Amino acid sequence: MSQATKRKHVVKEVLGDYEPPSEKQQIVRVLGTPGNNLHEVETSQGERFLVSMPTKFRKNIWIKRGDFLIVDPIKEGEKVKAEINSILYKEHIKQLQKEALWPSSFTDPATASPKSNPKESSNQGSEEESKSDSEDDSDLFVNTNRRNYEYSESEEESEKEEEEEEGGEV
Fold first, then answer.
1. Residues with Cβ < 8 Å from 139, sequence gap 6 or more?
2. Is the model's pTM score more than 0.70?
3. Which of 13, 114, 121, 142 has its CA 20 to 30 A from that of 108?
4. Which alpha helices (DSSP H) does 16-122 contain, by range?
């Protein structure tokens, strides 16, 4: 089987239908990637350990910080305690929440649907209510490797700049 055909089948398997986690499997969140196809993860109870990526996923599927995985435990591992079984995408997470299999400790504004978050629904203004669902930006990719900076200018600073501009033109 060629590399391209193999990649096509692996991607189809990952993006296709998923199976809910069995009793032995766990849902974990990726914290980082130290290298050598290892990923540092955290369980819903807060336990941290390393998981390995199977060879079929290597160079075909990319995992980043904040993604959710289903992992199979490894009995003989001291540091590496599990192996990745599948990668959970938004559709998979929504399905797990409907089936009540999603850990409550992982439910936060990034993974919860907007209708289920009471804080967000109480803070919505009339402007947000008038927007259509097509303008919802929640599906857009957010680069988690960059910090978000919010720049705001106080009124005093803007008044001083205007006075300097007016005074300098005379």
1. 90
2. no
3. 13
4. 90-98, 118-122
- The amino acid occupying position 103 is P
Whether the CB-CB separation of 36 and 67 falls below 8 Å is answered with: no
Q: How far apart are CA 117 and CA 113, in angstroms?
A: 7
The Cα 116–Cα 108 span in angstroms is 10
Mapping DSSP to helix (H, G, I), strand (E, B) and coil, where does residue 29 land?
strand
Kindly report the CA angle at 112 between 73 and 86, in degrees rounded to 5? 30
| CA–CA gap between residue 51 and residue 39 (Å, rounded) | 5
What percent of the chain has pLDDT above 90?
Answer: 38
**Out of 38-47, 81-90, 161-170, which region has the weakest mean confidence (pLDDT)?**
161-170
- The H or E element spanning position 118 is helix 118-122
∠40-15-6 over CA atoms, to 5°? 90
